[in-house]
Amino acid sequence: MATLKRSDSIADNMPEAFKQSRYHMKRCFAKFIEKGRRTMKLQHLLDEMESVIDDQAQRTRVLEGLLGDIWFSIQEAAVNPPHVAFSIRPSPGFWEFVKVNSADLSVEGITATDYLKFKEMIYDDNWANDANALEVDFGAFDFSVPHLTLSSSIGNGLGFVSKFVTSKLSGSLESAQPLVDYLLSLNHEGEKLMINETLGTVRKLQMALIVAEVYLSGLPKDTLYQNFEISFKEWGFEKGWGNTAERVKETMRFLSEVLQAPDPLNMENFFSRLPTVFNVVIFSPHGYFGQADVLGLPDTGGQVVYILDQVKALEDELLLRIEHQGLNIKPQIIVVTRLIPDARGTKCNQELESINGTKHSIILRVPFSIENRVLRQWVSRFDDVITKILDLMEGKPDLIIGNYTDGNLAATLMASKLGITQATIAHALEKTKYENSDVKWKELDPNKERPGQYESHTSFTLPGLCRVVSGINVFDPKFNIAAPGADQSVYFPYTEKQSRFTQFHPAIEELLFSKVVNDEHIGYLEDKKKPVIFSMARLDTVKNLTGLTAWYGKNKRLRGLVNLVIVGGFFDPNKSKDREEMAEITKIHELIEKYQLKGQFRWIAAQTDRNRNGELYRCVADTKGAFVQPALYEAFGLTVIEAMNCGLPTFATNQGGPAEIIVDGISGFHIDPKNGDESSNIISDFFEKCKVDPGYWNKFSAEGLKRINECYTWKIYANKVLNMGSMYSFWRQLNKEQKLAKQRYIQMLYNLQFRGLAKNVPVATEEAQIPASKP
Ligand code: UDP
Ligand code: LCN
Q1: Ligand located closest to 428 CA
Q2: What tens digit of pLDDT does each residue of 17-67 get?
Q3: Three-class SS of residue 646?
Q4: Are 612 and 511 in contact (CB under 8 A)?
Q5: Atom of ligand 2 lying closest to residue 637 CA
Q6: 6-40 b/e (C-beta count within 10 Å ≥ 16 → b)
Q7: How far, in Å, from the CA of 716 to the mean position of ligand 1?
Q8: I want to staple 668 with a disulfide (CB 3.0 to 4.6 A). Which of 135, 607, 619, 650 is the partner?
Q9: What is the strand order of the sheet 83-91 is part of?
Q10: C-beta of residue 774 within 8 angstroms of C-beta of residue 298
Q11: Cα 55 versus chain centre, distance
Q12: Do domains 279-427 and 502-712 have the same CATH topology?
């Protein structure tokens, strides 16, 4: 049977595929256009197809082969009778657009712009037909820089850049001069590092490296740099090559190889040794950024956990690198957030706070102010903090990291003002979590934030505002996947008996099993011997704890096998100030009644003590239970890796990050949040197998841990991020012109459009506000 190949265009293949089932397809298209203009997602199309072709065997045949391949690649359909246009993603990163005439099934390949216009007609005809509607096209700047082309390379921009830099520096000796100039520019607070002007040309540097290597070969490997520093300085070398003769020699060898015949591996190795990053600024303005009593407050979830762990990992790695570089420099990391005068009992009203577990890292809180008036409540915006940072760091930072939309905006403004390399961490973007949040921006904007992920921002439209024909490009050489980890001193395997936090056991026993109903838990577990399936999240709609409760309620087999314990929110909807949370609380109470969950279901209120939470995951592992993450969409999903670190077999949503963290059927299981019956059966099957073969549980516990240690640790993360910081700082120098052009374009959008929109955001009053949920 014919199947879709990457080389085939969808527009070419579709007519052929329709021939397979022309009669049924015509009926389906007639159904699609029946309701007039609208957008539809794949599930929606499949549901309507089901109502047209009611025989399942027939339907399966229709969706076999080429037509099935195309059909299941559909991301969205825009219906404008008699036409239906499709956006189709045949493989990661690749998108095609086609327009089908429902009357005769003729197919026309269209551009992204035409697709967006077609879709806009559904929402705003005038805008769609306005010949001068604003089109944003970042692709127009990508003329001189090569891009990745393979789906399998997405997220590995660094590897690509080192190849590209390699080829730029190859050819003749002069080609490598930009690298020498870059080395000459390295310094710390004005003190030169690596080389000085004596070695200002490639040839001079090459010769000096040869002499130095011969010299170093005659020294014991562990000879300290100080012992040969004077001779090296005379030859033109400055500090930074290494702390011992052996390390200096290795670093020099990497560079000699690069200068002789550049290759990406030596290039990457050399850049990972360069002393370029000492001071880092991390922006995370929204939410309550603190080290205690903040988790569960509005806008305050994984991002806070992530940044505190990230700072520790980065500081450890910086200290190690600085020691290996033979330098005596104190690194500093400053997390910039907003000072909240009404701090709700947290430390968010303190200007400065040292970060626990670090030596040199701090939180700097800056109040938001409007016309000299400090805002007292939490709001999502940020102000200029440059002066404060320059003061605290006694100089410029070397790397600025922005988190989430607001933090990235502040980071971009600061990075472009100071001319510093910026890293952008998205955590969650606006579009895929909540359907149609782009085309319906006018309705949703006053309702505050909505979330989603990268590829859905390749092309999208905000009718009446701008049509982004080329936005985020996952093939951009700066696009990298650097996955976080979980703090392994808190989240470690349940089998490490000596390290377990046994002091929490009485409290956890109470939390899970006592029959008392209080502010911390409701419901109880009759049969304590059954394994526990466990979930923990903020009580937002997207986290779908209500979905999991309903799946459990409905599935008798599952209820016979395990108990359900969830941690999230609290129990009285009237005490919540968050609209989504209120609705979810009410829903859980309804489900408890509807499915008579008493005796099998425990609901525990949001937990803020991460050490106790770590032990809680392990106690669930002691019951030979599992963790379930049922979110409708999850950008990354820290709870998934926390659970896996504790050796708890994990079932997680196939929508978003967890689908990559877990290899389905090997290191855990994927579940479909939209198909509760299927998901709860996957969980039941697992526990049935465990009953027969206890080794089955152990296998998934061990494989989950293996996966974590191979791919998801903070050590791997910190290494990758600092290597990126080093390589991209050089890359920026090589691509100055293009960077400048893009920066000007962004600045114009910021000034002419964004600032105008921001002005329309109502300023918070002194009265208490109802905060929106964090995306
Ligand atoms: N968490 C917690 N108490 C709760 C709920 C969640 O401490 O009641 C922690 C959880 O252990 C994890 C983080 O909050 O570290 C949630 O991160 P995740 O990435 O899963 O989701 P987010 O909240 O960022 O969307
Ligand atoms: C935000 C989210 O929604 C989660 O999926 C992530 O795990 C968290 O940030 C940390 O990156």
Answers
A1: 2
A2: 999 899 999 999 999 999 999 999 888 999 999 999 999 899 999 998 899
A3: coil
A4: no
A5: 7
A6: eebebbebbeebbebbeebbbebbebbbeeeeebb
A7: 21
A8: 650
A9: 38-40, 74-80, 83-91, 94-101, 107-110
A10: yes
A11: 42
A12: yes
In single-letter form, the type of residue at position 737 comes to E
Distances (CA, A) of 389 to 189, 336, 359, 362, 394: 15, 9, 18, 11, 8
pLDDT tens digits along 587-601: 999 999 999 999 999
In the beta sheet, which residues pair with residue 566?
A: 535, 603
Q: Whose CA is nearest to atom 17 of ligand 1?
A: 302
pTM to 2 decimal places? 0.87
The CB of 636 under 6 Å from ligand 1? The reply is yes
d(C-alpha 696, C-alpha 690), whole Å: 5
Specify the residue with its C-alpha closest to ligand 2, atom 11.
427
Residue 217 has pLDDT above 90, yes or no: yes
Grouping H, G, I as helix, E, B as strand and the rest as coil, residue 495 is coil
User: Which runs of consecutive H residues, i.e. helices, occur in 295-385?
Assistant: 302-324
Q: Where are the beta strands (DSSP E) in 646-692?
A: 650-653, 669-671
In this structure, of 190-204, 257-271, 405-419, 708-722, the range with the lowest mean pLDDT score is: 405-419
Convert the pLDDT of each residue in 405-449 to its tens digit: 888 888 998 898 888 999 988 775 544 445 566 666 566 555 533
Instruction: Judge if the beta carbon of residue 642 lies within 6 A of ligand 1.
Output: yes
Q: What one-letter code names the amino acid at 109?
A: G
Topology of domain 171-261 in CATH is Four Helix Bundle (Hemerythrin (Met), subunit A) (1.20.120)
Fold of 10-110: Nuclear Transport Factor 2; Chain: A, (3.10.450)
Q: How far apart are CA 309 and CA 484, in angstroms?
A: 9
If one counts every other C-beta atom within 10 angstroms of the C-beta of residue 676, the result is 20
Helix ranges, 218-301 (H): 229-235, 245-260, 264-273
Quick: pLDDT tens for 495-507.
999 999 999 999 9
Percentage of residues in the chain having pLDDT higher than 70: 92
Decide: 634 in ligand 2 pocket, CB within 6 A: yes
| pLDDT tens-place string over residues 758-768 | 888 776 655 44
DSSP 38-102: EEE-HHHHHHHHHHHS--HHHHHHHTSHHHHHHHTTEEEEEEETTEEEEEEEEETTEEEEEEEET
Helix (H, G, I), strand (E, B) or coil at 568: coil
pLDDT band at 82 (very low <50, low <70, confident <90, very high): very high
pLDDT at 131: 92
- Is residue 613 lining ligand 1, measured as CB closer than 6 Å? yes
Model confidence band, residue 368 (pLDDT cutoffs 50, 70, 90): confident
pLDDT at 282 over 90: yes
Cβ neighbours, 10 Å, residue 201: 14
The average pLDDT across 165-178 equals 91
| Exposure string over 684-705, b if 16+ CB within 10 A, otherwise e | bebbeebeeeeebbeebbebbb
Cα within 13 Å of Cα(647), Cβ side: 18
- Does residue 542 have its Cβ closer than 6 Å to ligand 1? no
What pLDDT, on the 0 to 100 scale, is given for residue 372?
Answer: 58
Architecture field, domain 279-427: 3-Layer(aba) Sandwich (3.40)
CA angle, 465 then 467 then 473, to 5°: 130
Burial of 548 (0-12, 13-18, 19+ CB in 10 A): buried
Q: Does position 513 have pLDDT exceeding 90, yes or no? A: yes
The mean pLDDT of 551-565, rounded to a whole number, is 98
pLDDT for the residue 591 = 98
User: The domain at 502-712 falls in which architecture?
Assistant: 3-Layer(aba) Sandwich (3.40)
Give the ipTM. 0.98
Q: Where are the domains of the chain?
A: 10-110, 171-261, 279-427, 502-712
Average pLDDT over residues 677-698: 97
